[in-house]
Design a protein that fits this description.
The protein has about 375 residues and is α/β, with parallel strands linked by helices. Helix content is about 55%, strand content about 10%. It folds into three domains: about 1-140, P-loop containing nucleotide triphosphate hydrolases (Rossmann fold), CATH 3.40.50; about 145-230, Helicase, Ruva Protein, domain 3 (Orthogonal Bundle); about 240-365, Zinc Finger, Delta Prime, domain 3, CATH 1.20.272. The chain is built from 17 helices and ten strands. The protein has a six-stranded parallel beta sheet with strand order 1-6-2-5-4-3, sandwiched between helices. The protein has a two-stranded parallel sheet with strand order 7-10. Strand 3 (about 45-55), helix 3 (about 60-70) and strand 4 form a beta-alpha-beta unit. The protein is globular, with a radius of gyration of 25 Å.
Length: about 375
């Protein structure tokens, strides 16, 4: 059975299953969900814990299979954790996982917990994942998107008895905080814990059985000023080249420039950044050409294989993107391709990152 991340705590209060699967890329949220399962398991007598990390195609699954099919040496219940960092168990692993899922049914002496990264569509429809889903509970931990990060930070601050000031200053504080920790929720969590030590909550805080904290009186949250947040928050953002296109297509020039600076500082390859930008430029041009052939926008997007968030961004841009703008962007992407590969191009900066900034700004201008 599939559970939403928000349903996990309520589900656990009703009783434990013998098999759980967590998958997602947000390390902090995966860790918290796993902690929540472990805490409930300990209350049910699961006092032992064994962790297996699947590394490489030649991992020996025999120990995992043996753990799932036998009692502990001292008769105690145990938690068997299986971590698969790659998300790809391989042929032998697939067979082993299906066997483990079958063993888990009706086995109340072993709780098996699989921890996986974000899975693609093929993995979610595989035989091994279907076996996990059919025999236990699977929980997909979603990413916290940039547009939702401010609200997430506000909620987390409230858990330790804090909040930003209302109005414009509060919005500015959350935006500043989000800009500094984007893509790094572990750092955001650490900063919030630091706030709770520097500025203790005005009221007492109680702990729930899941381990999270809630205020007895939410109206008495202690306010943090922008200056307090600015002084305490470190710039620990981690930028994802695949999220860059969302900022560009949204026409958010300031965020785009900040992400490019962050990617450069992190040592990201110019070629990969150019690929991300030019892929969207090519797709915009292709969809624009299909529309000129008389195809409606939804059909053109489907043919160009544009889905999800990008589909909504494309739908906003394309009705006002002219053929000349589309052609100019495509030509510019071709010129910058040469620059990032060491060629010179008249009229363009010769430094690859400066040229990438200029190309991204051109797309932002059209998108905005």
């Amino acid at each position: 059975m599939q559970l939403a991340a928000t349903q996990l705590a309520t589900h656990l209060q009703k009783g434990l299953k013998s098999l759980y699967t967590l998958h997602g890329d947000e390390a902090l949220l995966i860790q918290e969900a796993a902690d929540c399962i472990r805490a409930h398991a300990r209350k049910q007598g699961y006092t032992e814990r064994v962790v297996h990390t699947v590394a490489g195609a030649h991992f020996d699954w025999s120990e995992v299979l043996a753990a799932g099919g036998s009692m502990s040496l001292f008769g105690d219940k145990q938690i068997v954790e299986v971590r698969i960092p790659s998300g790809k168990p391989g042929k032998d692993g697939s067979a082993a996982i299906q066997h483990i899922a079958e063993q888990a049914q009706g086995n109340d002496s072993v709780l098996t917990l699989f921890i996986l990264p974000k899975l693609d569509k093929m993995s979610k429809t595989s035989a091994w994942f279907s076996a996990l889903d059919g025999s236990g509970a699977t929980v997909e931990i979603p990413d916290i998107e940039r547009r939702a990060l401010g609200a997430w930070l506000s909620q987390r601050l409230a858990l330790v008895g804090l909040r930003v000031k209302s109005g414009e200053e509060g919005e500015r504080s959350l935006k500043f905080f989000a800009d500094r920790v984007e893509g790094n929720l572990l750092a955001a969590h650490q900063d919030i814990q630091k706030f709770s030590l520097l500025y203790p909550a005005a009221t007492s805080v109680s702990s729930t059985h899941e381990g999270a904290s809630t205020l007895r009186n939410p109206s008495e949250l202690r306010e943090l000023s922008f200056e307090q947040i600015e002084a305490a928050v470190l710039n620990v953002a981690r930028y994802d080249v695949f999220k860059l296109s969302e900022a560009v297509l949204a026409g958010n020039l300031a965020r785009t420039q900040r992400m490019l600076d962050g990617l450069q500082a992190e040592g990201e390859a110019e070629v990969l950044v150019h690929w991300a930008l030019s892929e969207d430029i090519r797709n915009l041009h292709r969809v624009r050409s299909l529309m000129e052939e008389g195809k409606p926008l939804p059909m053109a997007l489907q043919e160009a294989r544009v889905w999800g968030m990008k589909q909504r961004l494309y739908e906003r841009i394309l009705p006002r993107l002219t053929a000349l703008e589309s052609t100019n962007l495509l030509h510019a992407a071709h010129q910058v391709d040469g620059i990032v590969k060491g060629l010179k191009c008249p009229g363009w900066p010769q430094q690859p990152w400066v040229a990438l900034h200029q190309l991204a700004a051109m797309v932002c201008k059209v998108a905005a």
